[in-house]
Amino acid sequence: MTNRLADATSPYLLQHADNPVDWWPWSEEAFEEARRRNVPVLLSVGYAACHWCHVMAHESFEDAEIASFLNEHFVAVKVDREERPDVDAVYMEVTQAMTGHGGWPMTVFLTPDARPFHAGTYYPPAPRPGMPSFRQLLEAVAATWVARPGEILESASAVVEEIARHASPLPPSAVDSDVLAGAVVSLLGEFDRRNGGFGGAPKFPPSMVLEFLLRHHERTGSVEAVSMATATADAMANGGLYDQLGGGFARYGVDASWVVPHFEKMLYDNALLLRFYTHLTRVTGSERYERVARDTAAFLLRDLRTAEGGFAASLDADTEGVEGLTYVWSFEELGSAAAAFGVTPEPNFEDGKSTLRFVSEPGEEVRAALLAERALRPQPGRDDKVIASWNGMAIAALAEAGAFFGEPSWITAASEAASLLASVHLVEGRLLRTSRDGVAGPSFGVLEDYGCLADGLLALHQVTGSIRWLDVACGLLDTALARFAVPDSPGAYYDTADDAETLVRRPADSTDNASPSGASSLASALLTASLLSGADRSSRYFTAASEAVTRAGLLAARAPRFAGHWLTAAEALVAGPLQVAVVGADDSRRASLWAAAVAHVPGGGVVVAGEPASVPLLEDRPLVDEGPAAYVCRGYVCDRPVVSVEALVTSLTANTR
User: Residue 605: CB partners within 8 Å, gap ≥ 6?
Assistant: First the structure.
């Protein structure tokens, strides 16, 4: 049996296309069918790389008897959370409010007008202590719908009213140097001094918090900030979270010490961590951090790049239904290399296998041989849809890393991804969130798509000097300011546009979680654009960025672990905007000045090189003695132009801390 998901562009939906469940995609037609039949809607939300989504699919959605009951008593709707983050956000808020926790697969029961009345996550095929089976849950909901429909409708109305009560933007609150210092103190209180990172298991890479700590150290010289950043960087890179053979990071550590990962690899994690390890290399000069950055870039280009030049969303946690099958090794399989990877006869995973850690350098030949051997194993599935926001993060990371490490092929890859987004995802100035095989999906872009893609294009503009990417980025920012702003609340933004599909609540989540929130990504891009754009836009962008950061001030002060990207933007605001314009023909002297600027400009600063007047940052900055020169400006105060690398480095480092 093939259901209505057979023509979907989402690999996750296609995974369910042959289920005996009569799935519908999220659509008005599905809810119209529920109204026609007077039955509730079962909403199931997940994503392609989700291990427990696969488990529940196999146990329940592939079961003919469960599917028959589900089809008779419900309209079943399947949603890819990566394709429809707005739907996911609204009902995840409900799930967390009702159960105290959330996660995927997410299972929510709705009235035919999409109001939620019961929510949960994974349900097993047989009862467990404190948890009914999925079949029992279906039977109970179906019976209550028939026997007491009024109670359900009343409960659904109460749920919608309750979540609406918490929908107001936070009041403005300044994020000054004292708040930033206080955030470091708060993070020290939650820091895991033994294992790195924050909190206990499961432990996620705190990418944006680490970027904030690095910027805070650059501005203030804080030993505490850089110590937390480097200790966490070491622990993640040396543990099983990091792929010691192929590069790249898994989504999170199952344990507090990063030894056993949840093996799915997400594009956003690796893009954010590539950027962080690149910046950490710039600050510390560490060869180990450079190696991690280079191998993570290699992973992106080797394993996630699509035929069209974009980057796929993720690699699966499972291989042939077994989690981690591709990645784990036995002591015997590793032979003499076991000690270097911390593998002993006592396995740390399942079925006599272990994850690999970094204990000592095994040597390039050993690593290459093991990687080649691993390539002969069955490989995890790949969700090859291209997501605008996540590709924006990858574009930014590859552009910056390519410039810093002198890898022009990485910049070329970033440019090709940007071209795909501009040609396929951008239609009459509006973004579509996903594409697959070069064909755009049906979902409109959300705020994070506009903010993260603009940020990536601004990074690409800096390393290529191409005005095209600045123009496209500014167009995205102008659309975001016009379409996503909360009326009468300067600095506050919804996650969906003013003409997007109406849900039971218009989502607006400003917290940074595994990836930047839409509002913080927009604020960061606006701040960067204010340094790069012409006078007609610069002050407007700077004001909008400042208002957005101020609107998140209470979040940054009270919960810095969930405001990492906000704090990073706030650091740049407090430090004052730093601009370096390198003007002149593309010769060796300009190249040397450019490389020196890239190597010494702290996080949040911008660097552009090119012919005078070719882009806004270079306007009114002439050559010196008919040769290339570098102009350094801080907080709208500029130094005299310099023509030597030594003078430029002195200018960039003289006023630090």
Answer: 531, 572, 577, 578, 579, 580
One-character DSSP codes across 167-226:
-SPPPP----HHHHHHHHHHHHHHB-TTTSSBSSSSB---HHHHHHHHHHHHHH--HHHH
Strands 116-120 and 252-253: unpaired
Quick one: CA dihedral 15, 17, 18, 19, positive or negative?
A: positive
| Neighbour count for residue 144 (Cβ, 10 Å) | 17
How many helices (H) and strands (E) the chain has is answered by 24, 20
CATH architecture of the domain with residue range 11-165: 3-Layer(aba) Sandwich (3.40)
Residues 318-331 as b/e (b if ≥16 CB within 10 A, e otherwise) read bbeeebbbbbbbeb
CA pair distance 111, 51, nearest whole angstrom: 28
| pLDDT tens digits, 342-387 | 999 999 999 999 999 999 999 999 999 999 999 999 999 999 999 9
In this model, does residue 656 exceed pLDDT 60? no
Query: In the predicted model, what is the mean pLDDT of the chain?
Result: 95
Q: Return the domain boundaries, the chain.
A: 11-165, 184-326+382-575, 578-654
CA atoms within 13 A on the CB side of 481: 20
Share above pLDDT 90 across residues of the chain, in percent, rounded to a whole number: 91
When the candidates are 1.10.287, 2.60.40, 3.30.70, 3.40.30, the CATH number that belongs to 578-654 is 3.40.30
pTM of the model: 0.95
Specify whether the CB–CB gap between 299 and 246 falls below 8 A: yes
Q: Quick one: CA dihedral 156, 159, 165, 169, positive or negative?
A: negative
Alpha-carbon gap, residue 575 to 176, rounded angstroms: 10
